[in-house]
Write a structure and sequence with these properties.
There is one protein chain. With 291 residues, the protein is mainly alpha-helical. It has 11 helices and no strands. It has one domain. Helix 4 packs across helix 6. The chain is globular.
Length: 291
């Protein structure tokens, strides 16, 4: 990656790492459906407004690919994270997010976009083993709520991985602004009916709206423009490896700011997941043959 791509990568890591704390605040005020729906609509509105003011020409192309990415990378991932984060904590939710490259590689292999090497197969085995350690040995009691949170996190990771590969395959000719605006519009539309079933639980306070706008404007609008640009330029799996750094930042913030607890085995599981993903992505160099 060249300098600008590295800057995008680093910025994305910090923004999404901090976003887990904001998600917790927003879900408490707007509910897990409201948090995802309002975040999607506000993010798309902010980008559209900036594009109009800057007289940026937007060419969206066909709506169906944008709807698919909106259903997966936006609706599926945001609903999953909004539902799971209050139930399992920001640190653990972030570790689950770190599994996205594993699922991305598997999906990419089926679609012919990726090739799993022998070390990649070992990485997949380690990664899924790390998930077992993460879920099976928590620092909190294993309740139905905890299990639902874990399942929701896994589904969010699968949705994100699917959407990234789909965008890389079908939206490479569409700009990152168009991808972000279009996918968030569709994501908001798809989650909006759920508000009839899961309404906003309370009257939000003024500062809750500040959290929501920051989450939507920075952690969604800006971050997804950077992310889709990386997907188009360096590929879905490499771009999504940013989740490793995101995981570290989010775990540190969850532990320090929110006093969340992880068991020793869970910390080991997180490390195993990151090691497995690193092997899948080819980030751990292999020894030259004969050495």
């Amino acid at each position: 990656m060249h300098r600008r791509q590295l800057l995008d990568y680093a910025s994305l890591s910090v923004i999404w790492g901090v976003s887990f704390v904001l998600v917790l605040k927003v879900v408490q005020a707007f509910g897990w459906v409201g948090a995802a729906t309002f975040r999607a609509f506000i993010a798309s509105a902010i980008l559209m407004l900036i594009a109009v003011v800057a007289r940026r020409r937007l060419v969206f192309g066909r709506w169906l690919p944008l709807a698919v990415v909106g259903a997966t990378s936006v609706a599926g991932q945001l609903i999953g994270l909004s539902f799971s984060t209050p139930r399992i904590g920001t640190a653990m939710a972030a570790i689950f997010v770190g599994t996205i490259p594993l699922f991305s590689m598997v999906i990419g292999q089926f679609w012919g976009l990726e090739h799993i090497t022998p070390s990649g197969r070992v990485g997949l085995f380690l990664g899924f083993g790390g998930i077992v350690l993460l879920v099976g040995f928590p620092a909190v009691p294993v309740t139905g709520t905890f299990v639902l949170g874990c399942v929701s996190s896994v589904l969010a990771a699968v949705s994100a991985a699917f959407g990234s590969n789909y965008a890389h395959k079908h939206l490479r000719a569409v700009g990152s602004w168009e991808q972000t605006i279009g996918s968030f519009v569709f994501g908001g539309i798809l989650t909006l009916p759920l508000l009839l079933v899961v309404p906003v639980p309370t009257t939000p306070q003024p500062f809750d709206y500040v959290y929501l706008v920051v989450l939507a404007g920075v952690c969604s609008a800006l971050a997804y423009v950077l992310y889709f640009r990386l997907v188009a330029e360096v590929g879905a799996t490499i771009a999504i490896s940013v989740e490793f750094v995101v995981t570290v930042i989010a775990v540190v913030l969850g532990t320090v700011l929110l006093k969340e607890r992880l068991s020793v085995v869970q910390v080991l599981g997180g490390a195993v997941i990151i090691a497995g993903c690193s092997l899948v992505l080819g980030l751990i160099p292999r020894r030259p043959s004969g050495s």
